[in-house]
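Protocol step 4 of 5: obtain the predicted structure for the target chain.
Materials: sequence only (see below). No template structures provided, no constraints applied. The aim of this step is simply to have a reference model before the mutagenesis design in step 5. Sequence pasted as it appears in the construct record:
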Amino acid sequence: MQTISEREYQSRRERLGKKLKQNSLALVCAAKPKIRSNDTEYPYRQNSNFYYLCGIEEPSSALLFIKKGKKCRVVLFVKEKDATFELWNGKVTGVKKACKRYKVDEVCAISKLQSRIEKEMREINRLYYEFADTSDETAILRKMGSNVYAHANLSKMIFKMRLYKTPAEIELIRQGMQITKKAHHHAMRMCKSGKKEYELQAEFEYIFTKNGAYSDAYTTIVAGGDNANTLHYIKNDKELHAEDLVLIDAGCEYNYYATDITRTIPVGGSFSSAQKEIYALVLHVEKEIIAMVKPGILRSKLQEHAERMLCEGMVRLGILRGSVDKLLKKRKHKKYFPHGIGHYMGLDVHDPCPYKTKKGKEIPLQAGMVLTIEPGLYLPKNDHSIPKKYRGIGIRIEDDILVTKEGYENLSKEILKELEDIESLYEGCSS
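Step 4 output (structure tokens):
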């Protein structure tokens, strides 16, 4: 499995250390295990920011940055070896192995974190930590520093670093994309009238796991017919019908890096004429917006252009009536395209990296950023203001785009989306 090198993690910690003010402490903690029911837990997933800085997947771990003057020391705290704990929960790295494995200044047992913080706080005047973190370790720091030290949200500093992906990160997304491609093409072949939505969801989970991606990046959406007009539909329990489309929004998480792909396909193997009209409009808009991606362009410009093209298309098809400019001004088009054109993607499927500077100025796209482009049209079955033939159609087409120095690279270009390619795949299955 492709991984990030320890040298790259060390470089990230060094970069963060340089951003900290002198005479300060910064604490980043592992995620707490989450209870599913009574004494059973959800599968453990590490805090993305903590993982970004060290690649450690174990709970009960923490990184403490100690900056005195211009020099910053990094201390890693890990769970001590404990035979009884390991009998029930599995092996932990422990202090000795962590000393050899990780390029930090010091490794200590997590049980010593509080006393170490107390010692170091005598000579500092500023605390950095993740404000949203609810871990016991961060609670200790927050309580100890209450009303005494200046506080700063460490999350925002790390989010800004995560905005630009390194070659190693991009390679992980590429590898995840190959798995996601297999899953989408497999689902296209398996999609048939009479199947339940959850059956297709199960096929995705099977392909992901079989190919080494042990988790989906988010709950898979399999939305047949009018269900596609619920944007975050995850119930996935209805039967698929031959005359309907099915919107599938699914992507694997490979070694912590997300993919996020949406395709809309015909359950019966071919698009109706009305479905083709809506699909062709959405696909045209998606291609046009992707072609606009390059360093320096603003995401808001992509949004504006997508909204105008979709509005023009809806007027042409009779879904909206009137002047395009007036419809846009009154935001009438948002009824059928309510979401953004895309979002950042990386360690989180919706990477929480900044879209604006501290002064509120929009950050233009730059090489190394990865974002989704995902126009859609959602035409509810019970909306009698639109032509009857379009009611109940919901279509979204989504690809993952890397901004390059020259322009862009569509990381998901191999996943079929042309009308004729999708229909041909069905024909190949039946022959």
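Step 4 remarks: The chain has two domains: 6-162, 167-430. The longest helix spans residues 167-190.
Proceed to step 5.
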